[in-house]
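Example 3.
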Amino acid sequence: MIEFQNVSFAYEKGRPVLRDLSFRIERGEAVGLIGANGAGKSTVMKLLLGLLQGEGKILVDGLEVKRETLGEVRRKLGFVLQNSDNQMFMPTVYEDMIFAPLNYMLSREEADARVDAVLARLGLEDLKYRYNHKISGGEKRMAAIATILAMEPEAVLMDEPTSALDPFNRRLVINTIRELLQTKLITSHDLDMILDTCGRVILLSGGRIAADGPAQTILRDRVLLEANRMELPLSLMGRE
Amino acid sequence: MHMADALLAPAVAATMYVASGTAVGVSIHKLKKDDEPQKLPVMAVTAALVFAGQMINYTIPGTGSSGHMCGGMMHSALLGPYAGFLSMIVILAIQCLFFADGGLMALGANVWNMAFYGCFVGYFLIWRPIMQSRWFGAGKGAQRARIVAASIIGCIVTLQLGAFSVVLETSLSGITELPFGAFVALMQPIHLAIGLVEGLITSAVLLFVYESRPELLQCVEPAEGGSSRRSLKAVVAILAVVVLVVGGGLSLLASSNPDGLEWALFGNAEEGYAENMGLDEENYGVESAAAETAGAIQEKTSFLPDYAFADNDAAVGTTVSGVVGSAMVAGVAILICLAGGFFRKKRQSA
Amino acid sequence: MNKMQKALHELAEMDELAARSSPIHSLHPAAKLIATIAYILVTLSFDKYDLSGLVPMLLWPILLFQISGVELRSCFYKLRIVLPLVMAVGLFNPFFDKEIVLRIGPAAVSGGVVSMLTLMLKGLYCLMASFLLMATTPIDNLCAALRQLHVPKMLVTLLLLTYRYVGVMTGELAIMTEAYHLRAPGQKGIHISAWGSFLGQLLLRSMDRAQELYASMLLRGYHQHFHYADIKPFRRRDALYLIGCVLVFALLRYGKIAQLLGSAIVR
């Protein structure tokens, strides 16, 4: 579904953020992308979405990510931003949710049906006509996820989906993510959440892959994690 | 400087709407031609930022009072004239709709007084020429000095124009009995001070932006070269002196010789403002939708429409009935309120 | 509470009022907008001495306030902005226009006093009318009406986007102001050494925010076109309301209601 082939990227010349990165994510896989601040996690996301152009080749569902294919590529990918305020720019949740379907040339009826289906699935019917500036942080995050699901993407990318949420809302988001059948790529420092939602973990360090393997293996490797400025997930502490 | 609806005659309000609307049309046309879709979110976020930024209190050193900014010049420096203009309009619209700052009908005038001057005059006549000039020489220090100079001159000039327009619009509307000259003498010096403070705040913010992200500023080339902070202080000092001298002179002129100002503007010095405010509406194309208004203003000292002079017995009756009737209307209004409250209570209890 | 928090509070209050339901709330926003503009224009068209003509204009907003269930006092809070400005201009009138136009018993009323009063009434009426519009119409409905009335799409979209971020930005500045004053307890405002960086910092962050916002639009297939919720149809009752309003305004403007009422008693 997603493939990076020898991808490098630098914001400034001589200071590469990503160096010769290669990995492959199969359809339906759930992958956690972890690493210290500045390891290049967000850059990977931006390259994948075509918001940045680097060297090397990136494939999404067999399509190379480049200017001509951007429309098609982006249609396949749903990106949940870390800051929901930046994602939800329309006045109401409903208008934000129909934004993408209508842009993809669906009729108003089809778009409405999609919105209602997604809201029902996530149990968010109450939010439909609420104002984006008047809903709580937790509701906003769920609404942002709903906005992306209304696009019916083939893969869902998430940037810190559980940041700044209370335990209840965090759990709600985690359960929602677990129920998604799409290919998932999630970046986070919340390793417990990654452990709960992802089968595979890619650990980035200094723009290279430091480790790539089953979540259960990597997230139990105290030495590896601590060498990369992280610690064991709380749920695994004392159980190595 | 937000005009309220009550200060404008319908004809003046409509004229200002047409003027501002034309500028909107031009701006949208230009922006569409430039075709920069990423500009829209930048405009929205900048507008929201300036809206909030207007509420910041800036302490003015040595005075104990605080200054504010309005943001026209900042908009043109960050977004350019057309996008800046539209962003300012949106700010003014939100202020008028949600905060009663300004008014629905006064919006056209407010857009003209604050957004048009700040963005178009401020950009084309001040910001761009100064940024593209070789004032203060080359290098980073000179660039800083140019930013400060353009911000201060820009804010002062555009606020002066805005304040003058406020006076003009109010006087043309026939709202105030304050003689035109005196009104000008009152408004201009105040806005000189306000403009200076706004200019200093604007230049401080723009300098900060220049240091970290110079590419965000319009017409500014990220210059290489040594920095000399001294030239900056010198510029501020020189500008301050110039402002004080010019401002003092202008306000002296305005207060001592209002007739002269009037004559220069309207060419009817003989009439004297005491009689006529120096304004002859017909010559300025102001026509009110309501037939009597214009005439009433013109000859207001000689007759009062629908009312009688106090010493005219025949007409006192109508005046008194007017007063009594007004009282009755007020009574009806109170009754409506009571009835509304009654029905609401009934609905709640039902 | 600092200024920004107060502003947020005011915004929230308007949202809350607009979200209620009443016969006025359910009217088409375009009808309300046009009626409001007509009301303001008629109010402004009164001559500055026509106090008794102006007084009956009060009835329309009062009636609508009652029907819509919006409390009058929520509007009077906003008078603090309108009145000082109007007063600043109007207060000069009694000094310059001393012609006596009316005697009530021993008291003589000059033209300046009358014109000052009409000015204040006009300020009050216009405030009530536009407050009523915003208190019964959510902003997105109003924007839909603006588009129906052929206000350029770019402007309307910008208004909506800005409105969405006004709350966010004001909230951020409120927090920054609070943080500033917690570390500078004696200061009333921002010290000159921080004039540039205080707003500048937020400005730079905002530019990044704008980029992210644009990315979010692009990633959801944006190509220069915004879609909004469906616009309500203009029904017969909306037309009736509008026609009714215009008739009432005409009556109030040319009917000399106060004079007629008064003369029925006086004579």
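The interface with chain B takes residues 89 of chain A (CB under 8 Å). Chain A has ten helices and ten strands.
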